[in-house]
Amino acid sequence: MNAQNAAPAASSRASEFVPVEGGTETTSGGMLLVVAYLLMWALLLGFLGLGWRRQKQLETRLSELEKQVSGKAPGA
To answer: 63 lies in which domain range?
Structure first.
């Protein structure tokens, strides 16, 4: 089998987009784009929400530690 026979010549390939008629796809590209954007926004907001919650926990823990340190310092 010759490699030249297996691949079509460059001049015979299509150089422009030609839509396929009568396909079996039921989801439009626009809908997929909207779903992808919604998913990305949800992930971003979830990430920011988790970061905010962790920051609040750290601030609470830091204030507790500051109280413990300031309570022990004068008596030491």
So the answer is: 47-76
In 3D space, the residue among 75, 48, 53 whose CA is nearest the CA of residue 61 turns out to be 53
Residue 10, token pair as written in the block: 């460059």
Does the pTM of the predicted model rise above 0.85? no
Segments of the chain with pLDDT less than 50: none
Amino acid 27: pLDDT = 81
Total structural domains in the chain? 1
Residue 13 belongs to a domain? no
Using CA atoms, how far apart are residues 40 and 18, in angstroms rounded to an integer? 30
Q: What is the DSSP string of 24-75?
A: ---S-HHHHHHHHHHHHHHHHHHHHHHHHHHHHHHHHHHHHHHHHHHHHTTT
Q: Which two tokens stand for residue 43?
A: 């992930």
Q: What is the mean pLDDT of the chain?
A: 84
